[in-house]
């Protein structure tokens, strides 16, 4: 059997886009190879951007405490200075904005976990074929 015929048969039976003929692949220059290998070796630096020091849930919790304290303090200290109706309306607006922030932070937290898992999967596969340096944490 010829090698070309075997390759065609494998392509059809496996139906995979990853089995390419050598002449289908673009030629990489030495500079391209070097840049690629450096990028893979420094893969952990991308992780530093993906993994955040503070999660959005922690930020939302801190923000919730600020909103609560702002509401209490503003209502106590503005009894004689401002119209109570206006202050109450502003505090209600503050609470509504916080609820939107808290809900969105929760949704983003789930997406963040999916993003981190996908990043780790990419790193695992790359590490099977190339040298991926470890983070210096």
Characterization of the model:
It is built from 5 helices and no strands. It folds into 2 domains: 1-29, no CATH class; 42-129. Helix 3 runs antiparallel to helix 5 and helix 4 (56-77) packs antiparallel against helix 5 (84-129). It starts with a helix and ends in an 8-residue tail after the last helix. The chain is mainly α and 137 residues long. The mean pLDDT is 79. The chain has helices at 3-14, 30-41, 43-50, 56-77, 84-129. The chain is 73% helix and 0% strand.
How many structural domains in the coordinates?
2
Helix coverage percent of residues? over 70%
Reading the helices and strands in chain order gives: HHHHH
User: Strand content of the residues, in percent?
Assistant: under 5%
Query: Which class do the helix and strand fractions yield?
Result: mainly alpha
Radius of gyration: 28 Å
